[in-house]
Each structure stands twice: as structure tokens, then as C-alpha cells.
Amino acid sequence: MLLLVRREMFDRRRPHITGEATPDAADRADVRAGPAPHMHRSPRKPRVGYLLRMYPRFSQTFIVNEILELERQGLDIRIASTRKPTEGRFHELVCRVRAEADYLPETLFGYLGKTCRVHGHLFRQSPERYARALRATLRYAGATWFDFVQAAYLLRWARKKRVDHLHVHFGTEEATVALLAHILGGLSFSLAVHAVDIFRRDVDRALLARKVNASRFTVANTDFNRRFLIENLPHVEASNIRLSYNGVDLDRFKPSDRRRRPCTILAIGRLVEKKGFIHLIHAVRRLCDQGMSLKCKIAGEGPEKRRLKQEIEGHGLASHIVLTGPLQHGQVRELMQRYSCFVLPCVRARDGNMDGIPNVLLEALASGCPVVSTRVSAIPEIIEDGVSGLLVEPGDVQGLAQAVRRILTDGDLAGSLSQSGRRCTEEKFDIVQNIAVMRGWLLAAACGMECEDHPASTRALVDGEEVPGARVFQESGRGPQQDGPVVERPGLPAGASSHHTDHSLLSHEG
């Protein structure tokens, strides 16, 4: 059944097999049942696992920032990744993460015997669960055989690392692995969705709905995304989707007393279609034709680099626009404090993909750098046109050029936008405040409590600490708990106690 091939060969699309969009009733029963009765109570600190597709990744500093802040707030974290990094450079922030990182096997070469043993163990442990996971793999076009293979390794990892609850970033293949691990062994998980994993036209929305419904909770980082999920995922449980904005480190990204360099434009992001950098190049060309002397830096890496470079050279803009490649966080902070204007002209790509709230916009606002962007997705949730920034229609080169010109030539406007942008991040996007709410949700899930959407509504004690947004889970029929709430810990494979250890089937890099 298991072939000696790499993951990429498993990822070929299969015809969609018709099935229910909603999860099996057993999926939700696993979530609602709370801790399994056989699991041991443990006085140790709750531990949360993070599952990522690739860690670390240069373009996903927001995940590193989240982990760092959770660790600063005392959460015990472990990290698993379905793939090893392929990029040659990482942000310096990664070195500050204390959590260990483990990597699930990407190939069966050298792992065939172990894979057969771990799957055989899970089959013997619960043939019914194993069959359900197998059916789910067959049912959905977005699920692959290798997702099923890796799900067993994920369960082993959770057991070895004593992970009480798993949090997954992005609703793509890593979330499929988590879902199958949940079906196979009852692994408790939550999900954070972003943009590429929900907007692209090739997203298997029936499978995504099942992931959302099977999760303890699903986080949308914008209200636009939350409403999109509710309106577009078949039979999704809206009550399971909650809003939590990404945050920015307001101590790291803040205005500087130094004077900004005149007529300078900064743009940062992956060089992909949805960032709209081609329109910025055309806008700079218009401004240069009008006699303005500009310097524009576009920082990032991606598949559109060659096209953008050809466009710059073809219009004779090499002395005005520079493609810098990726920048470290310190360099980004420096440029945002010194440049006159930050521009991110986002559009909806031809495959349907679009940005949610790009973190670089939050960082620019926090740094007091006047911002120009577009009315795409959730960007209007953070930028009020004419107050905290300027917004234009996506793809409107003339409007983009006019907005940039206004900021570069009107000092009063630039100063007003700078102050309002900073105030906006302080009120809604402070990473300390936003992550504190997320920490409460994760702790509640790790300790077998219900996770409340509104943190102020309920509180419960977790390891002697009052956690907002949590209340003790009591399954109907279990009877009253004696001598106060007992915190039990769900999330390990069936049949495993929180003290269980086994030989790792993972390749490990600390």
C-alpha cells in the first residue's frame, strides 16, 4: 500500500469523490467529548504544539512573532513542520525562539518499515478510527495519501512531546494532516486561516469546512475572511470561527525622531501577482514623466522578479526603482522609519488569491510611515481612507500615482496620516494584547476547557492562573466535579497517557 516515493508524487490531484461536506458526526463528537476518560491528570504545565508546512520561512515572520510573544507570555510550545526549509536565509528573530523544531518525514525512503509499524499499531488500536481516516483521505480531492502517512507520524510526535493541543497555521496540507491525526487518534487541534488557503479557486472548500468543524476553534485574522468562510464553505459551523487580528510589536516598530528622506517610496512583499507591484512600477513611471525625482525600493523575492525587472529596465526606470531582494527585520524597521511613503498596491490574482491583512502594512503604520494601499479584501479594516492612510481601487495606476504624489508633496497630510496610522495600531493591533487573547484560547483547549469567543465573558483557573475566555468543560452525564474544576488534558492519541514516551520516528533539528 505504501510506496517508496516522495511526497510530491502523492500530491497529484485526484478526481473529487462525492461525499458529505460536513464532517462525520464522530469528528464533532471527538471535539465535544472533552478529555478521554482513560487519560491521566497531570500537574505539569500545559503544552501547545504548532504545526507548519515549512519552518522557518522567510515570508512568514508573523508566525515567528506570534510564537515569540506566546513564549514571552509563558506558553510552553513545541513546533512540528511537514517540510524542511528550502530557503537559504532566515530572519534573525528565528534565533530567539526557544521551542524545538521537529520535521515529519518527507519521503518513505528509509521509513517504510517504521511507517508500516506505526500504521499497523493505529489500525490495531482502533480499526474504526483508521477506516474513518482512510475514507476521509479518499473522499476529498484536497487530501493525499502522504497526508494520511504523515498524520500517523504527527500522532507519534504529539505523544513523544506530550503535546496537549495542536495549533495549525494555514488550512492547506498541514491542516489536512492535523485533521487526519484527529480522526486517527483524537488529537485536539485548532486552525488559523489566512489568504492563499481560502481564496484560491482550487481550494477544496468541502474539505476546509470539515477541518473548521472538527477543530476546537478556527481563527480568521480579518473580519472579511471570517465572513468569507461563513458564506462560502458548505455547512460550516459559523460559531467555530472567531476573529483575531495579527499584531505588531509596537516597541520594535515605532516612529523615529529623524527626518524622513524626501521623495522616497518603500514597498515590501513577496514578488507575486497579488501584491500588485507591477502597478507601482507604472505609477512611478507616471510620476517621473511629470517631473518628480523619486527613489523607490521594492524588497522581496518571488516568481515575478524577472517580469518586474524587465518592466523597470524597459521603461528606463533603473535609476529610480531598485529590487533589493529580501531584507532582515532590522533593515525593514530602518527603512520604514526613514522613507516618505509605504506603498502596497494589492490586487486579486487571476487564480483568485488575494491578501488578507499584510503584516508589512501594520509595521509601516506602527512606524509612522504614511501608507498607500488598495480596497482589496480586509485592507479597509485597518486603513481608513484619508485618516490612517490612502486607499485606491486595485489596478488603478493613475489613482495610485495621485495618492503617492499627495503624500510626497503635502507635509501636513503626511504628518496626519503618520499619527493616525500609529494610533490605529495601538488601538487594534498591539501584539501583546492580541496574543494574550490567543493564549487564553490555546490554554483552554490544552486543558480540556471550552474556548469562549469573547474572553471577557468567562474565566477559569488553569494551573492556578485565571485565564480569560475559558470555562471548564463538563460533558453531559459525567456528573458534577468535586472540590473545584479538574483540568484534564486532551489531545494525545487514544491509548496514550500524558506520560507515555516512545522512540521518535522523526528526523529532528533542535
Can you walk through the features of this model?
- The chain has 510 residues and is α/β, with parallel strands linked by helices.
- It folds into two domains: 7-247 and 435-509, Rossmann fold (3-Layer(aba) Sandwich); 264-428, Glycogen Phosphorylase B (Rossmann fold).
- The chain contains 18 helices and 18 strands.
- Strands 7-6-5-4-1-2-3-18 form an eight-stranded mixed sheet, with helices on both faces. It has a six-stranded parallel sheet with strand order 10-9-8-11-12-13, with helices on both faces. Strands 14-17 form a two-stranded antiparallel ribbon.
- Helix 15 links the parallel strand 12 and strand 13 (390-392).
- Helix 11 packs across helix 16 and helix 14 (359-366) packs across helix 17 (411-428).
- It starts with 6 loop residues before the first helix and ends with a strand.
- Mean pLDDT is 84; it is low at 1-22, 33-41, 455-463 and 470-510.
Overall 3D geometry? elongated
By secondary-structure content and strand pairing, the structural class works out as: alpha/beta
Tell me the name of the CATH class of the largest domain.
Answer: Alpha Beta
Number of strands: 18
| Low-pLDDT segments | 1-22, 33-41, 455-463, 470-510
| Widest sheet, order of strands | 7-6-5-4-1-2-3-18
Cα distance spanning the termini: 32 Å
Give the domain tally. 2
Largest sheet report:
8 strands, mixed
Find the CATH superfamily of the largest domain.
Glycogen Phosphorylase B
CATH fold type of the largest domain: Rossmann fold
Helix content: 25-40%
**Number of helical segments?**
18
